[in-house]
Structure formats: C-alpha cells, structure tokens
Design brief:
This protein starts with a helix and ends with a helix. The relative contact order is 0.02. The chain is an all-alpha fold. Helix 12 runs antiparallel to helix 13, helix 29 packs antiparallel against helix 30 and helix 39 packs antiparallel against helix 40. The chain has 41 helices and two strands. The protein has a two-stranded antiparallel sheet with strand order 1-2. 71% of the residues lie in helices and 1% in strands.
Length: 718
C-alpha cells in the first residue's frame, strides 16, 4: 500500500486494503494499514467514512495515527466539524493532531486562536506548525502575528529548515516586504526549487522589480536548478512588466523545450507578456496553439483585442467556458472605448441575467461605460442598484458627472460619498477637476474640499496638489494656488507644471519664466504640457523671439514631438504680434490641420491688424468647419465694419440669420453668499433683469459708478 501511495496509485492502494478486508481481521490488519488507507482516500468522504466506521467497530480509533488520518481526511473533504469532533475526543493529542486541525482551518483568526490554545497547552510548535500558520499571514494585521512567529522560529533554530524559510519568504513577499524576503533568501544554508520560486514570484508580483526577478531566474539556472512552470511563469510575467520582448521570447523557447507549453497558466502568462510588449500576433499564436483554455485565457484575449472582444466573448461561450467578473470588466472597457452603445446595453442585460451586475467591479465598469455614453441616468440607476457601495463606485459616479458637465450633481454626490465612505485621492481628483471647470459653482465648495483633503491627510499627494493648484487658478485665486505650491512637501513634475499653467492662464509672463527656469535648475523633467503653458504665456506677452527659442529647445534639446496644440500656440503668438502672414504660413506645419480655436485666434488677429484678405480665407475655413459657430461670423463682420465695408458686414449678418446662427450671450457669475445653501453662483448678462432684487442691484451699481467718478475727480484735483 505504501509503495502504491509513493507512486500516486491511490486507487490501487485502496484495492489492496479491500482485499485485506476480504481475508478477515487479524493478523492481516494493523493501525498502520488503516492510516495508510485513509490517506489514499485523498479527501473522498464516501470511502473515508466507511473506513471510519470500520475503525470504530474494531477499535482502531484508539490509535492516535488513525485518528490523525481521519481528521486529515475530513479536513480535505471540507467536513472540518467532523475533524474537530475527533480532535475534541482525543485524550492526549500529539503535535501531528494539532497541526492537522490547523491545516484544516480556513479562517486566519480561528487558526491563530487555535495556535494560542496550542501554546497554552504547552505544545511546542514544530516546522509544520510554523509553515501552516505563516500561510495565513497575508494582511497587515496578520503580518504582525507573522513577525512574532518569525521571532519564535529564530529562537528554536528552525529558520535553517528549507520549507520554513520558504514560508517566511512567501509571507514577506506577499506583503511587499521584499527587502526582508531577499535577506532571508540570501542567508538560507540550502535552497530548493520552492525557495527560488518564492523569491522570483515575490519580485515579479510587485511589478516594479521585474529586472530583479529576471536576474534571480538567471542565477538559478547558473546554479544548475531546473525550472518548473512556476519559475517560468513568474519570469515571463517579469519580462512583461519590463517590456523585455527579447528575453521573453527566449524564456518562451525554454518553456517549449521543458514541455511546459501545455500548462495553461504558463500559456496565459505568455499571452499577457506578448500583449504588454504590444506583439499581438505572437499572443494570438500562443492562444491558438493552446489545447485547453480556461477563463483566464479567454479573458486575457478579450482584454487585449479591443476590436474583436465581442466576437471572442461569443466564441468563449461556444467553447463552454463560463466568464467571470474580470471578463466583463475587460469587455465593458472595450465597448466603452469604441462607443458601442447598443452592444453595451446587451452586455448589461447579460450581466443582469447572470447576476454579475451585483459584482462591484462589474457595476463600476457599467457606471463608467454609461458615463462615456453621456447617459448619466443609466449610470445612476446602476449605482442605486448596488447592495454595498465602495469608494470606487462613488468615484466612478462623481467622475461621470464631472465629465458630462453635471457639476452640481457631482458635488452633491461627493457630499454624500464622504458621509458613507472614506474618500481617496481619486475622489478628490474627480471633484476638484469638476469644480475647476464649473463657472457656475461657488469656489467655497473647492475650499471645503481642500479642508476635507487636509483632514484625511492627502494634501501631500502630488496629483492632488496639482489638482488644487489648477482648481484655484481656474477659479481666479492665483494666491491660493501659490500657497498650495509652497506647502507641497515633494514637488513633482505635475506640481511644477500646474503652477506654470496657473500663471500662464493669469497672464503673468515673468512668474511663468521664473518658475520655468527654476524647474530646469532643479532638474525636474519638462514635458509637453510644461512647454505648452510657456508658449501660451510668450504669446500673450508678445515675446515672439523667446517663444521661438522655447519651441526649438522643446524639439531639439528635450526631444519632444510638437503636437497640434504647440503649433497652435505659435500661430496665436505670431498673430498677436501682428505677424499675421507668417502665422498663416505656419498653419501648414500643423499636423492634421489647424483646429477651431487656432483659426479663431488668427481671425481675431486679422481683425486687430486689418488683414481682410487673410481674414476672409480664415473665416471661410471656419464656416466650413463649424457652420453654426457664431464667433467667425461676428469677428469677420466687425472686421468689415471697421474697414467701412458695410455691405459685406450686412451680408454676413444676413447669412447668420438665414443659417439661424445665434450669437452666444456672454455670462458673468457672482457668489451671492450661498443663499439657502445653493451650490450655484448667480449668472447674469448685459441688461439682465432676471434677479428678484434687480432694482436694488442697479441702484447700487449706479451709486458705485458715481462714487468711482467722484473719487477720480477728487484724486485729480490733489
């Protein structure tokens, strides 16, 4: 029987036991035979319970080895209560008995509680006890218990045991304590394949230590250790993180040579690696060569192939592979990206039928999808149907409202979110960008968000510092932007760029250039957005030569490819300086052609400098691009009027009426002090009479006007 078990011939071992039963009780039976037979059951409680009955009848349960085997069998079959009943009846359980129960416990708190009970009873932990308990230490709270276990292991001198060392490395790696894991690995007197796999997996799962994982794998090969599917999978994953296609292909060759290409998990990671390295052809080839495919295989392919994701999803169902929540997350993302509204609704229905819509990550993807489709009513419906709402769900809804210009709803949702959940950096990032873009929302709500951000200790996050700077600058409070910048402990590229953009928006050329030079001297990398803000500032100040130098430096020194926005800034800069012909020539250099704002800027310059011919060409291009946009008609009409060409001006105005193009009314906003807790500012236009206190407002405006005239006269007479 033992020989059969060593060869994994479980059925044959049980057949020998059955034949012994047919021969009759003693001398053909011993407690060892029963214990071995129970081991051969491998968690099959049907056969195991029959052997249990036999053991009770013939008194074999009195033997500790049989009771331990029974507990092991019931634990493996998922009947832990039966195992615990047997343990409770033992008069003198040994270390194997205690370890067997611990290995059957699924909950970490229960396992630790049982270990404490074991310690109280004076049972000394052995290597198996420690290995089992360390496997439960996966969270921070559990890690504290793991540290205590490590201390006991060191005291007992068990840290030299290979499988105890492996368990410690796994624990530290799982909790991203790779320094401690590496130190343990380096000090191990002997290492087996599991040791190498543990440290390589630790490096590769973190993502940022892919290079170290690859080096460790190469060192393992040098020491003559033969890799298995775990070693190969972890290293392929690391190649994906590092985007190291060349080495990834070499490892793929090794996978084929060692025969692990038939292993599903290894093939799945190969697909992922090729996808990350943007070699979809090779990823598709690996997928096609797979004999067996699981949900991970199909999900990886669906996430990778944006255009064919729906087709692959249907093939997956035909292959009788049932999708999981990650499948739907990838599928919904691709549907959102391609704006497939009809298909999105179909997948939503499928999720409802299969109950996947109750999974938080799927529901969050649906909220984001409908927000992308400009259907916030459906986003809200999905959100309201959630049984429990995590902060990610709130973030998706807040972001959706902000992206769709529903800023009031975004703030109302944010105020509810902070009552029910703990906000994170994404929560504040979404609402701050919304407040920054919302002219009609009071700045006081931005200030309230800033206060709350300070309370939860997120004020030093670089992205949030940039968002705060941007919000204050867009809402006209440059002094607050500067204060946030000065209070930021670690100033990242985002923070510097946000401050430069803020000053550029406020037309403060000197501050922009001062910060730009300081950013260069500090050695902070300059990106395309930094240069965009500096070029815009040069244009507004009329610093054409400086603007040209900045543009050339961006291309030649910093190797940044200029975008349409950069070319547009140069056109605007030339136009503002009166070099209209040069600006028109520069239009031809813009990749993809000039945009609406560029042409409007040039037309404005034509009006200022009386360039009628160029203005006509630009206006014609604008009217073709946006026939309903009033700005081009008004600017060109004013240009004609200023030149005294009244007939052409009248013709343009008539064309506006015929095409039903209406001039947009300009609005100003005033914070009226939050009357009745209103989120919004009061918007008003020229000669506006809509406010209930119109008479008082006009009376006060008249008084202020007279007061200003009086003070000016008084000042001039001094």
């Amino acid at each position: 029987m033992l020989m059969c078990i060593h060869r994994n011939l479980w059925f044959e071992a049980l057949e020998i036991f059955r034949k012994q039963l047919q021969l009759g009780f003693p001398p053909h039976f011993s407690e060892e035979s029963v214990a071995v037979a129970l081991k051969a059951c491998r968690g099959d409680s049907n056969i195991g319970s029959q052997i249990h009955g036999f053991s009770i009848c013939y008194g074999f349960t009195a033997y500790l080895s049989v009771s331990n085997s029974l507990m092991s069998m019931y634990s493996k079959s998922g009947q832990f209560d039966n195992a615990l009943d047997i343990f409770d009846k033992l008069k003198n359980p040994d270390i194997v008995s205690w370890n067997t129960v611990i290995s059957g416990i699924l909950n970490s708190k229960e396992a630790f509680s049982f270990a404490l009970q074991m310690n109280i009873n004076g049972v000394i932990f052995d290597a198996v006890t420690y290995t089992t308990l360390l496997a439960f230490c996966s969270s921070y709270e559990e890690f504290l218990f793991g540290l205590q276990l490590h201390s006991l292991i060191a005291k007992q001198g068990l840290d030299c045991e290979v499988y105890v060392g492996n368990a410690l490395i796994t624990m530290y790696s799982r909790l991203n304590r790779l320094g401690e894991a590496t130190k343990l690995f380096d000090t191990m007197p002997t290492r087996d394949l599991v040791s190498w796999n543990s440290i390589i997996s630790g490096y590769s799962q973190e993502g940022i230590y892919g290079f170290e994982a690859i080096l460790c794998f190469l060192e393992m090969l040098k020491e003559g250790m033969k890799p298995d599917h775990v070693s190969l999978s972890s290293t392929v994953s690391a190649c994906g993180h590092e985007r190291n296609l060349r080495l990834g292909r070499q490892i793929h060759n090794l996978v084929i040579k060692t025969g692990y290409e038939s292993h599903i998990s290894t093939s799945n990671i190969l697909i992922s690696m090729y996808s990350k390295c943007e070699v979809k052809e090779d990823a598709n080839l690996v997928f096609k060569c797979m004999k067996d495919r699981n949900v991970v295989s199909w999900t990886t392919m669906i996430s990778m192939n944006e255009e064919d994701s729906l087709s692959l999803f249907n093939k997956m169902r035909l292959d009788e592979v049932y999708p999981n929540d990650v499948t739907f997350v990838g599928l919904i993302h691709n549907i959102s990206f391609h704006n497939l509204i009809k298909e999105g609704a179909m997948i939503h229905c499928f999720c409802l039928k299969t109950s996947f819509s109750s999974e938080s990550n799927v529901a969050n993807s649906l909220i984001t999808m409908y927000a992308k489709f400009n259907s916030m009513r459906d986003s809200r419906w999905v959100f309201d149907e959630l049984n429990s709402r995590e902060i990610i769900s709130w973030n998706a809804l807040i972001s959706g409202y902000s992206q769709n210009g529903l800023y009031k709803e975004a703030i109302e949702t944010f105020l509810l979110a902070i009552k029910e959940s703990k906000p994170n950096e994404f929560t504040f990032g979404s609402i701050l960008s919304g407040i920054a873009a919302a002219e009609s929302i009071s700045l006081r709500y931005g200030q309230n968000c800033h206060s709350h951000l300070l309370k939860v200790g997120l004020n030093n996050e670089p992205i949030l510092s940039g968002a705060l700077l941007d919000m204050y600058a867009k809402r006209g409070s440059i002094s607050e932007s500067r204060r946030v910048f000065e209070e930021t402990f670690e100033k990242s590229q985002v923070t510097w760029t946000a401050m430069i953009s803020a000053y550029a928006r406020h037309g403060d050329y000197e501050s922009v250039m001062g910060f730009f030079r300081e950013m260069e001297s500090e050695g902070v990398d300059l990106d395309s957005i930094t240069f965009l803000s500096v070029l815009a500032s040069c244009g507004r100040k009329g610093m054409v030569d400086m603007g040209h130098r900045i543009f050339d430096s961006m291309v030649k020194d910093h190797k940044i490819e200029p975008s349409q926005e950069h070319f547009s800034c140069v056109v605007d800069m030339l136009g503002r300086a009166g070099r209209v012909k040069e600006a028109e020539e520069f239009l031809g250099r813009i990749p993809g052609g000039p945009g609406l704002s560029t042409l409007q800027s040039l037309l404005g310059a034509c009006r200022i400098y009386g360039e009628v011919e160029i203005g006509e060409r630009v206006a014609e291009a604008l009217m073709k691009m946006e026939p309903s946009e009033s700005g081009s008609y008004v600017l060109m009409s004013n240009l004609y009027a200023e030149r005294g060409e009244w007939q052409k001006a009248a013709k343009l105005r008539k064309g506006m009426r015929e095409r039903r193009v209406k001039k947009e009314v300009g609005f100003s906003w005033a914070d009226v002090g939050g009357v009745e807790g209103s989120l919004c500012l009061h918007g008003f236009s020229s000669d506006d009479m809509s406010h209930p206190q119109t008479e008082e407002i006009y009376r006060m405006a008249k008084w202020l006007g007279l007061e200003m005239i009086f003070r000016e006269i008084e000042h001039s007479s001094i």
